[in-house]
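LAB NOTEBOOK - FOLDING QUEUE
OPERATOR: T.R.
BATCH SIZE: 2
PURPOSE: Compare the predicted structure-token outputs for two unrelated chains run back to back under identical settings.
PRIORITY: normal
REVIEWER: second-year student, initials M.K.

ITEM 1
FIELD SEQUENCE / FIELD STRUCTURE:
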Amino acid sequence: STLVLAQVNNPWEVPEKYLKMENPFKADESSLSIGKSYYDQQRKTCHGEKGQGDGLTAKTLDVSPSDLTLDDLDTQKDGELYYKILVGRDEMHAFKDEIEPDDIWHIVNYIRTFYEDE
């Protein structure tokens, strides 16, 4: 698929400091609720209701949004996902100026539930 080729040909380079970062929040009901709220506001239009990369605007993008239900999500560290949401890339919007750092961690917790549901 286009997405897979884009990721293989242009893998994310995540700085070491982010690879070592630990999520300071447990994925409890409160964190997941906050994460879902931000996801629904900011991410669902591209990544879709269940994180499968099939949101309403996904078809209008040059590079398909990531399918957050795939096995590779489980191999990524929380700090990697945090970094990707923070800085964005290409058509994926950077949220560093719009979402508080703590809330990005809650989004990481929430998107992990997509993988667990599979």
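ITEM 2
FIELD SEQUENCE / FIELD STRUCTURE:
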Amino acid sequence: MLTTYRLKGGDKIVATSPADFLHQLRTGSRFDSEGTDEEYMQRFALRLQELEGYLVSTDSPAAFLADLITHGFVSVE
């Protein structure tokens, strides 16, 4: 099943799973697409903590995405 996610900046990601969402988030990054999806998730979480002041889980792509939604960084369309 495809789910459409809208990022805070307006970008849209259509993904089949939280892992697919994370992969597309990394490969679509203009600044930081190197390394593995898991490494990217860790760096993304650190940047969010620095810039937005909240911590998101990096235990799994599902927990990461759920926290992004909870904090309003990502919305489901």
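REVIEWER COMMENT (ITEM 2): DSSP finds three helices and three strands in the chain.
FOLLOW-UP: none requested
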